[in-house]
Amino acid sequence: MATATTTTPHPIYLAGRWVESPEPLAITNPARRDEPAGQTFAATSEQYEAAVVAAVRAFDETRQLPAYERGRILREISAGIRDRREELGRLIALEASKPIRDALMEVDRATLTFRLGAEEAERMVGETIPLDLMPASKGRVGITRRFPIGPIAAISPFNFPLNLAAHKLAPAIASGNPIVLKPPSKDPLTMLTVAEIVDAAGVPDGAVSILPMSRELGDRMVEDPRFKLLTFTGSPSVGWRMKDRAGKKKVVLELGGNAGVIVDASADLDWAVRRTLVGAFGYAGQVCISVQRMYVHEAVWEPFMERLVEGARGLKVGDPLDPSTDVGPMVDDNAAGRTQTWVDEAAALGGTVLVGGRPDGNFFPPTVLTDVPVSAQVCSNEAFAPLVVAFPFRDFDEAVGQVNDSFFGLQTGVFTNDLDHAWRAFHGLEVGGVIVNDIPTYRIDHMPYGGVKDSGLGREGLRWAIEDMTELRVMVLAWPG
User: Is the confidence at residue 415, as pLDDT, over 90?
Assistant: First the structure.
């Protein structure tokens, strides 16, 4: 098997076979655009069709796989990823330009995700329900069990090329469903390398296909009625249009946001600053739960902002392969250019740029803004960039309302040592997750994760993804007489 960083294109994984296509796909290195990260292929229409036919056929086998076999496969995938940690981390740094420290952390998380998948495969329990609640139902009991739904269409994004794809692949295998995964065209080599590990673990033929493909083929997959579930992670504008075209299949959407942070008067400021620097500027802000809007109590506004700006100036922007790098490049020039346009708009509307604000190519420095009207793009839309906009507040409930004043509702961080405020945030914030005394960017892979409003539909996290990938069925047992 050719490695992803050689000049030999990496083949694509079609239903247990390694194939090439007449459509080469060159992968750029966002940090060093004159040094390609590698090459592979885009699947043809015929190859897509072969993958779907194979997935439909494989369902007869995957739905019968016992829990111990599904668990074994997932544990072997987890171990294989762990054994190739350095290789995969370097590959993520090359094709996604994620700083190597963060890339290696992503590999570690994927190792956990597949291990958790194995555990969930072995505890897909049902329940017994007494049904004798009226005389006509005497002598009856219900037993529930979850059954695999069928072939799954999965589309994963560029910003976590390994672990967000793992959150689709692992629960699909755990629940006995075949899956066709479209990895991101910007950085597909990571999951094609993982496909080598999947293949070695002995998944049934046709159960897994990992196929880079054109937008047109991706659209075909969205509409294909042979798939019983579509799971998509990406931009809200794309995701909601997919839902409209998906037909009768179930749809899970993990979309974007403009995540807020509330820094209360009682917060530990040093901790809040340290974590906000990670949440706002890690991976150049290209995280859907990156800190974008920040609400700081007026009593701690000045000391917090001084420390935040000082910390932002101290972050190292540079080569993702350098272990000391904090912030790498944005994914491409278009992303950096859009960010510059939004910062310029905010300044023109009266905003103040406290630090950053000017890119060098597609390297955008950590940027902090204040005095920005909420109608500006950097407040109202998803920036997906290394910038944060700060607002002072006086009343805690006012801050909760300002966070809720958004089309999005993914996660919110609340730094407070006031238990009443923590509970009020939990009950009042219109989001999928409230993270107390940490940033909204926090996630561990067995927790339910997802948003409300324009931020998505459904939840990921192994147990909750499996619920969407299965159908609940009840059997009623009656005793005659």
Answer: yes
The residue with tokens 């609640």 is: 133
Q: Which of 120, 254, 382, 467 is catalytic?
A: 254
CB-count burial class (<10 Å; 0-12, 13-18, 19+) for 414 = buried
Report the topology of domain 260-444. Answer: Aldehyde Dehydrogenase; Chain A, domain 2 (3.40.309)
Q: Where are the domains of the chain?
A: 12-255+456-473, 260-444
In 3D, which of 340, 377, 337, 370 has the Cα closest to residue 357?
Answer: 340
- The answer to pTM > 0.70 is yes
- DSSP-H helix ranges across 282-376: 301-313, 333-348
**DSSP per residue over 57-119, as a string?**
HHHHHHTT--HHHHHHHHHHHHHHHHHTHHHHHHHHHHHH---HHHHHHHHHHHHHHHHHHHH
Domains 12-255+456-473 and 260-444 share a fold: no
Checking if the pLDDT of 276 tops 60, the result is yes
**Whole-number pLDDT of residue 330:** 96
Side chain identity, residue 114:
F
Count other C-beta atoms under 10 Å from residue 191's C-beta: 26
Is 471 labeled as catalytic in the residue annotation? no
Q: If you average pLDDT over residues 54-75, what whole number do you get?
A: 98
Both structure tokens of 348: 């023109």
Helices 215-223 and 236-245 cross at an angle (nearest 10°) of 50
20 as an active site residue: the answer is no
How many Cβ atoms sit within 10 Å of the Cβ of residue 139? 11
* Cβ-contact 197, 84 below 8 angstroms: yes
Q: Mind listing the pLDDT tens digit for each residue in 172-226?
A: 999 999 999 999 999 999 999 999 999 999 999 999 999 999 999 999 999 999 9
Active-site pick, 76, 95, 106, 288:
288
Q: Which of 214, 159, 165, 163 is nearest to 335 (CA)?
A: 159
12-255+456-473 CATH, one of 3.30.930.10, 3.40.50.1220, 3.30.70.260, 3.40.605.10: 3.40.605.10
- Angle, in degrees to the nearest 10, between helices 100-121 and 163-174: 10
Q: Where in 377-450 does DSSP place strands (E)?
A: 387-393, 408-409, 411-415, 433-436
Render pLDDT for 289-337 as a digit per residue (tens, 0 to 9). 999 999 999 999 999 999 999 999 999 999 999 999 999 999 999 999 9
